[in-house]
Amino acid sequence: MANVTLKNICKDYGKGNRAVTDVTIEIKNKEFVVLVGPSGCGKSTTLRMIAGLEEISSGELFIDEKVMNSIPPKDRDIAMVFQNYALYPHMSVFDNISFGLKIRKFSKEEIIKRVSEAAKILGLEEYLKRKPKELSGGQRQRVALGRAIVRQPKVFLFDEPLSNLDAKLRVQMRTEISKLHKKLEATIVYVTHDQVEAMTMGDRIVVMNKGVVQQVAPPIELYQKPVNKFVAGFIGSPAMNFIQGTILKNEKLLFKSDKGSLVYEIPSADESRLSNYAGKKAWIGIRPEDIYHSSANNVDTTNFAKINIKIDLVEPMGNETFIYFSLDDILITARISARDNSSFQTNSAFAVDLSKVFYFDSESEIRI
Ligand code: ADP
Question: Is residue 345 pLDDT above 80, yes or no?
Fold first, then answer.
């Protein structure tokens, strides 16, 4: 298997259309790295440059120590799995899986050996004689995986491989691909727009926006220490709530939202970090799970800001309840534990856990 290194990689599609800017990532041998970001952020272009399907405008791509920029795709020792699995409809599962080996002139014995191993790993042994149309969506995606596995490549590249599957199957295939990664001890680069997929599968996640890498970190670090407002808002579902306001210095340091619906004393743990911002505007970010119904018994009020709100909507999900309300005319989402089974009155008191609030510079949007 292999290390994959991207050094200052850019992609220009011409006419000032820059899809990827200065991407530098070191992917370690056997690592599962997920590229995630909204549609159009440059994930697929980055992946296709690793595959050799798209020319690199500037910068260098290494697989192990070797520069790959001008090496054709077939000589890069990589296998790619796409969203539309592109199986040959007239060929059996066996022939679909073995196709790449046949055109590379592998011996019949070797082909049978590799396809049998892959079919066993993927649970496809009983289906080898069937045609793609006789398979479910999940089975077809497994055939596409099989086609990649038998090549025994140095690196696997996945481009949104689960987008065509229904929600339940996606969750199942997610676990299967994670297990497969452990079994094959493969280096994997995986593209998705779905942050849940990224969080559950990646050893490390690369968050991209507008062609630029925002942060590279393991999932929990992204969640707990997002570098900026974009990452904070992208990772986590439902998304973080953002409110703009000013940091004020009286005797104590305070935060006051623009329209005054939220005013609180900044906890002492955050004071020294934020004191330089006195008199300046800032964004605060509150995760939905850090807002509590204040009649809940477990709310210790010392580090909490009480807010009196008018509930717009209550969505009971069973395991949790989402509450929507406005603060400063911004729609806020609160995620209330199912343990709190009190009834929600239209006019209610809630509390924000101030020890969990994130602060962002109002201009650069970098986390303070
Ligand atoms: P993602 O995979 O994150 O959705 P892409 O890498 O496909 O994003 O696209 C990044 C940007 O490059 C987009 O603005 C897209 O319109 C543009 N783009 C992608 N492919 C081409 C192309 N062949 N020609 C011109 N622009 C392209």
Answer: yes
